[in-house]
Amino acid sequence: MARINVLPKNIADLIAAGEVVERPSSVIKEFLENSIDAGSKNITVEIKNGGKTYIRVTDNGCGIEKDDVRKAFLSHATSKISSADDLDSISTLGFRGEALASVAAVAKVELLTRTENEEIGVSYKIFGGEEVELAEAGCPVGTTLIVRDLFFNIPARMKFLKKDVQEGNYIASILEKIAVSYPHISFKFIRDGKLNFSTPGDGDLKSAIYAVFGKEYTEGLLPAEYEGNGISVTGFTGKPTAGRGSRSGQHFFVNGRYIKSPMCITALETAYKNSIMVGKFPPCVIFIKLPFSAVDVNVHPAKTEVRFFEEKKVFDAVYGAALNALTLDTRPKASFSVAKAFMPEVVKGEQLKISETVTEKKDEVKFEEEKKTVITEKTEAKAPSLVTPKPETVVKEPISTKLTFNSREAQTLDFLKDEYVNKNEKQFNISINVNPDASSTEEPKASKTEVVTEKDEEVQIATEEATPVPDFRIVGEAFKTYIFAELENKLLMIDKHAAHERMLFEKFKSQMKSFQQMLLVPVTVSLSPDEYNAVLENTELLYKAGYEVSDFGDRCIKVSACPTELVDEDISAIITEIASYLSTNSKTVMPEKLDWIYHSMACRAAIKAGNTTTDIEIEKFVKELLSRDDIRYCPHGRPVMVEISKRELEKQFKRIV
Residue 65: CB partners within 8 Å, gap ≥ 6? Predict the structure, then answer.
């Protein structure tokens, strides 16, 4: 067996440097952390050739005492901790005492530093771990570190570095994250002689984000806050419409330290589920503050990986902050390029004929017409209605509407009342009283409306008080798909399928099995072996989604009930689609499976683009949509409604500048 040797210091330093100094960006990160720990208010970073040949980091921090300069470049020399107990509550970014020694072992390093108590500073040079010079020098308070020819003594490491542009981008990425995490510090980044960015250092997080990531990124953010269980979360998360194609726009910080945390990413994206487009990822700048003893940062030399002692609480905090941000989201704004005037050409000398038809919408619709529409919907096959009950609605004190019907109409309404209350007893308080002897000549109160028909039977109906909505006016519908409404000097453009889909999705989630409808003739569905087994293993899941399925033998499934909204749909095709999903996502947790089924159900049951919608349905649908702040995006993340202001329209038509 070979003899055991104690490695010389220079070889040990080279080995340690391999863990700490991976590339030029690693040097920048270590130097910046030391500058921040030193209490700096201004930090300037300058690089050349991607940091391979030149790096300079200047700060106005506390500086290093003359007697401590040599010790600063020794392995495991640090001013951040002094005992093992300090590792349990690390409050500084640096603490290992390896950075300066590791960098000095693989590069030519120059140090200029002066403390506030000293009149003359110190100049120190160390190349490849060997001291070259220690002398007095004139310099301002603070520290300047210059690194030249990184890996000059390890040519093999040089070969693994990327091109100058790529290495420079790595440095920019590190500096951006640190600059955003400390908005009270002014950062400047000079790259090959050009100022890349500069932050104001005024303490405003949003101004720092703007300086680093730009206008477009900043305008797509929503403020996020949460506090509980000793954890506070602040910062910004992105609007669902500002989703990005990758997670590169997601930045998480714990006690001011940038971290990479799959758990935090999962918490954020779970909150955005059903609100953002598939394949898009929400950007964020999230700061998590918790006791230093509740997180272990001594996991990896790079210090970007941490371990939380109570991950569930941190998950809930990030999730809650993202949900709070989404509640602040407003309707997406429509964006237009410079409008071109519509100027049709005259064909073959014919004069252009333009006809305008102006139609005035009546303020009131006769009750008989509305009544016929309601009865027809119960008996005739037609497109799904846009108007759906609100899930989990808080019932307020009912208001009464006094209506008079004949005997047959009263019996019909009494039947509908029983059916409706049985299905929605937790949401609505509806009572119908038939009184043949009641007089219909009584003066109604201000909150009541009276309609008299041929007979003198009276039906008293108490309905839920409508949620106040702003005054709006239906302008019309385009392509049998988009509804246009005028509201408070704004024009709303509504995708009726997307909006209806979201309403149904929320209804399914809130009511669970209460929307099930038994089938008069059960449907049998033939499946592949994998799909057949997947359905039988998830019968409870399907039951929660409104389907009642059972084994029919010979790889067939019998469907005895389905959600009410899907009675007229192709049940066999729906079950086949669900079975295919369940067979290929067997490891997916039940809530995600259930959400997917609700997605599919809502998409199929919602009114389709191109379906005809009556004026009454449009009016009621828009009223319900405007009364619900939770309907902003369809389950796939598409906006259900966008708005354009009157001012923006006037700018398009050059009425204003």
Answer: 115, 118
